[in-house]
Amino acid sequence: MHRRPPSRTAGPVRGRVLASVLAAGALLTCAACSGGGGSNGGSAGHDTASDVAASPLAAESPLASPRTGKSASPRAEKSAAPVLTPAGARAALITEADLEDSWTQVKGAAGWGDKLVIGKVDVADFLTAKTNAADCQKLLDALYDDTLLGKPTGASALTGFEESNSRLLYQVAAYDRAKLGASLNWLKTLPVKCDQFTATDSKGGHRTVQVIEDPVPSVGDARQGLQVTVTGTSGNEPTTLTLQLAVVRVGTDAITVTSGGLDGTESDTTKAAVQDGTSHLKDVLAGRTPPAQPGNLD
C-alpha cells in the first residue's frame, strides 16, 4: 500500500479565500465610516444631496434651486404686474405739447359736465328692447360724470384742455380687471343698442342722441371708440354737441379721452391724445419717465 502524498494546494486556496473575506470586511467598514461619520449622525444619502445641490453645476441647472435642489416655482419667477401710483398717474397725463393747434390746458376740468347730455331717455323709443333704454341712460349719465369705465379702484388723474368752443378731457386710472373688461364690452354694444334715441331735459325739451362707432388707433391691449351727437336747443337756438370718446386699456389701467363741443370734433387731436397718452402710460408702468416733448412733433 502506498501513501498519498499530502496536497500542497490547500494552503494557498485557503489563504486566497481568507484574503477576500478580509477585503470585503474592510470595504464595509470604510462605507460605514464615510456614511455615518461626524457627530451629527446624518445619513450618507442626505449628505450626498447637499453636496450636489451646493455644487456649481447644480447651481447652473434650470431645474433646481442652488440652495435647496428643488424645482423652482414658476410663480416665484413670474414678476408682479406693475401698479399705477398716484404720482405715476399724474406723470402719465398728456400736456399741451402732445396736442396740435392751440389747445390750452385749464384748471377745474374735474368739474366739467356738459348740460346738453343731461336728460331722461324716452323709453317709448325702445319698443322691443326696453333694457336698451337703461344702457342709453347709463351712457348719458357717464358722459356727464366722466365715468365711462366706472369708478377707478386705484390711482387716477385727469386734465383738461380748451380751444374755442371745444374741450378735451383726458383721464388715466387703475381699475379692477374684470370690471374694466366688462365696461369695454359694454361700450362696444352701444352703437347698436343706442344708435338713435330721444332724451328729455328738465324743461321738457327733446334732444335727439345718435351713437356710432369711431375708429381708435391700434395701441394698448384693447380699445373702443364712439362718437355721440346730441341735437337740441340751447338758449332757444338750435344746438348740436358732438363728442368723440376713445378708451384704451393697458393691463389693468386705462386712458379715456373725451373731446369735442359745439364746433364739432377734431379727429387728429383725439388721435394724438390717444397715441401719446398710451405711450406715456406704458413708460410709467415700465419705470421710465415720459418724454417732455413727444416724438411725433417737430
Description:
The chain is α+β, with helices and mostly antiparallel strands. It contains eight helices and nine strands. It has helices spanning 10-36, 44-54, 56-59, 74-77, 86-91, 130-145, 177-193, 267-285; strands at 104-106, 120-121, 156-163, 166-174, 196-200, 206-213, 222-234, 237-250, 253-261. A nine-stranded antiparallel β-sheet has the order 1-3-4-9-8-7-6-5-2.
Spatial gap, N to C terminus: 130 Å
Count of individual beta strands: 9
- Structural class, from helix and strand content? alpha+beta
Major β-sheet, in short? 9 strands, antiparallel
* Quaternary form: single chain
Layout: helices, strands, pairs:
Blueprint: H1 10-36, H2 44-54, H3 56-59, H4 74-77, H5 86-91, E1 104-106, E2 120-121, H6 130-145, E3 156-163, E4 166-174, H7 177-193, E5 196-200, E6 206-213, E7 222-234, E8 237-250, E9 253-261, H8 267-285
Antiparallel strand pairs: 1-3, 2-5, 3-4, 4-9, 5-6, 6-7, 7-8, 8-9
